[in-house]
Amino acid sequence: MYQIDNATSVTTPPAPTPAGTPGFFTDGSAVGGVPATVVPAEWLNGVQEELVNAVVAAGLTPSKTAFNQLAAAIRSTSSVVGSSRGLRMAVAAASATATLTAAELVVENSAGLSFRISNLNQAINLASTGAGGMDTGTAPTSGYVAIYAIYNPTTGAVALLGKDATSGVQPEVYGGSNMPAGYTASALVSVWPTNSSLQFKAGLQIDRVISIGTVTVLASSSMVATTPTALSITSAVPPNAKFVSGTVLVQTSTTSTIGINLTPVALAAGIQGLGSSLGAPGYISAPYRRLPISVPQTIYYTSSNTAGTPSYTISVTEFEF
Hints:
This protein is mainly β. It has two domains: 84-207; 210-320, Jelly Rolls (Sandwich), CATH 2.60.120. Helices cover 7% and strands 40% of the residues. It is built from two helices and 16 strands. Helix 1 (41-57) packs across helix 2.
């Protein structure tokens, strides 16, 4: 889309005439004496500016050789940032590099204008900085890295960009001050744990669910909690995590009725867990799925036991951000 630019065009739009009665074009009729509609420059200018302004508002630069800019502008107004199809990232063994793919992904700029990226297939290296690496500095030690897909609407360039996400919740659109030049749109696509060697831990991500190796967040043989007790799961999930999944296990040294329950808040709501009468000695385990996280990196639990020495274990195997 481009404004008219031939030798007979002018640089200043003519003043508009007063509005008349809305109507429609006609080819006219010689028999009926109806003249054909005259198409004035004023009307053509109006149509041109409506189209150009839609393109510019979408963050695009009008181009004389591009014929899909209006379509791109329309698509950019009807999508939720970060929504995707077929997003996947796998790290088979701890590594500083990883590749993220998606059939389609929506990114957004600071003005709220969105763009669709098709066939995303990009790598990131935590040992580098800039597009395809960390936004600045080094990856965190035994922390979390937010990964953004970043987009340059002028060139169509796409890359991944890492940001330390250990200390706080990261926004859906990159909010740091180290965006590589020319990239103006982004979307949060992952928040991945790192090890002590500044590498991605092994794991698998499908859409916004990340499966990790089992992380034990509670192992106690003495703690009976009759009211919801806060439990930090910082070692297993990032601040951005909204749901957590894993297993609970209880064990007793003698015949006992024993149990453990998990809740997302400090009250008896959304309870998941188990309770059982066990012989001596005995144990039982069960999974919990998509337990909501109401306070970042925190869940709550209660436990019970009627005899002997109890043992309680809570593990995390998956989180969703």
